[in-house]
Specification:
2 domains; 480 residues; elongated; five-stranded antiparallel sheet; 3 helices; alpha/beta
Length: 480
């Protein structure tokens, strides 16, 4: 009996362990399944989060790029399509952004919209994650708003040895080169009244292609301002990509600035041509002015060729003049601005390859209001728009601009004097080589010759030394 009872106990134990093992096995399998499912879910969530983070970073990059473009590219309106930021062939992930710019309710307000996407695989046409943001921006204007007397395009400003600019602000799209002992501004001027120098560094690419001119990237094509031995700039200096402030003071270089390229003066050439009421050949006795003669040129005049003023000739202007060819002042020749014009500058525009030459003591005599003459030279080597021919170019870029910008087409030299007057070489170079007072000068490039000391006393039409910058005002995510 004892052995039989012991046998029954062992069988009962075996019968109890088996269910326990079965239940335990099922629980282990369920735990493994749950853990595996959790790992898969977490993995999927991690991948999706990675897609979202990539889209977020791409949206931020798109908005940063848009702000930069708004402050460096005139009339920039958006990316023009999707821009690829990341193209990771190892992870098979691509991100893109697309930006657009819309006008706000006021001219100084705009809205930038960015749509950023993450694609995986790279070839997929459907995004794994999308982020859309809107940024409200505002145009903030700063500066003193004083007279801007030197405005140069992409060809820049060249100040030869010992030449000096002692009055008026300087705005340059290209570069500034100051020769030995050259100078801008005066050390004696209080900082609060210092001249302003603004340089946009737009003379890229090099060599020139159809995109010329554009703003140079950091480190591209050197720095925009170079100064020779003992050269000095006494001014508030702000220049894109300029890091060296040596020989600049009062207050000198303000670092880390981005200068918006200036728009050179515009002029309604076609309106002046349409307003012509008198057309005469250069040989006409009405306009031909020989030695010691005095002539009165009618207003709204067109001269159909080159005209040279004789020695001691005096021309009394009545209004605007259009010269098909060149205009040259002879020894001691002068042009007189009538009091009847008040503060309205008469315009003389010349189209010839010789341009306008005021030298050999040639002078402009201002009226009682201090008004001089607005001289404009329109010559260019070629036009950039199909169907246009010089001198009737509406715009210039690429090689056409590069081949025109350094050709002198306004030359004030040999004691020529033009107080109160404005010299404007529309597509070429204006060169000033003598001392004295000039109103203002503008051109694709400007050169001040050796030993010239110029006190600019007027402002280039339409110019300003004010600087406009687009800044962020608001930022929010858009849920479509």
């Amino acid at each position: 009996m004892k052995y039989l009872e012991l046998f029954r106990q062992k069988n009962d134990e075996h019968g109890f362990i088996l269910p326990v093992l079965l239940v335990t096995g099922v629980l282990v399998i369920m735990i493994i399944a749950a853990v595996s499912s959790s790992v898969v879910v977490n993995q999927n969530l991690s991948v999706q989060e990675s897609y979202r983070v990539n889209a977020q970073f791409t949206a931020d990059a798109g908005l940063d790029n848009a702000i930069s473009k708004m402050n460096t590219v005139p009339s920039w309106s958006g990316s023009g399509g999707e821009v690829t930021l990341l193209n990771d062939t190892v992870r098979n992930v691509k991100t893109t952004y697309e930006t657009t710019v819309a006008n706000g309710v006021t001219p100084d307000a705009k809205t930038i919209t960015v749509v950023a996407k993450t694609y995986s695989p790279i070839t997929s046409a459907t995004a794994k994650s999308t982020r859309k943001y809107e940024m409200d921006i505002r145009e903030v204007t700063s500066g003193t708003g004083g007279i801007t007397s030197v405005v140069s395009g992409v060809g820049g400003l060249v100040i030869q040895n010992n030449a000096k600019i002692t009055g008026g602000d300087v705005v340059v799209n290209g570069t500034i080169t100051v020769g030995n002992n050259g100078q801008i501004g005066l050390s004696s001027t209080p900082v609060a009244n210092a001249m302003n120098v603004r340089v946009a560094h737009t003379n890229c690419p090099n060599p020139v292609d159809i995109t010329y001119p554009r703003v140079c990237a950091s480190g591209e094509n050197g720095q925009p301002i170079t100064i020779g031995n003992n050269g000095r700039i006494y001014a508030d200096v702000r220049a894109t990509n300029q890091t060296t402030g040596t020989n600049m003071s009062n207050p000198g270089l303000i670092p880390n600035q981005t200068v918006t390229p200036a728009i050179l003066p515009d002029y309604d050439r076609n309106a002046q041509k349409a307003a012509v009421t008198t057309t005469l050949a250069p040989s006409s006795t009405t306009v031909s002015c020989g030695n010691n003669q005095t002539k009165t040129w009618p207003a709204n005049l067109r001269i159909t060729g080159n005209i040279a003023l004789g020695n001691n000739c005096t021309v009394n202007l009545s209004g605007d003049v259009w010269v098909d060819g060149n205009l040259t002042f002879g020894n001691n020749a002068r042009m007189v601005v009538p009091n009847s014009l008040g503060t309205t500058l008469p315009v003389i525009m010349a189209d010839g390859s010789g341009g306008i030459v005021i030298g050999n003591n040639g002078t402009v005599q201002t009226n009682s209001s201090g008004t001089g003459i607005y001289f404009i030279a329109y010559w260019s080597s070629a036009c950039s728009v199909g169907g246009e021919t010089p001198p009737n170019c509406s715009t210039l870029n690429g090689s056409a601009l590069k081949n025109s910008q350094d050709q002198v087409r306004i030359d004030l030299s040999n004691n020529g004097s033009a107080p109160g007057s404005i010299l404007y070489a529309r597509w070429s170079r204006a060169r000033v080589s003598n001392n004295g007072a000039i109103g203002a000068v503008a051109g694709q490039s400007i050169e001040l010759g050796n030993n010239a000391v110029i006190n600019f006393t007027a402002s280039v039409p339409g110019s300003s030394n004010l600087t406009s910058t687009w800044v962020k005002r608001g930022y929010m995510r858009v849920y479509d």
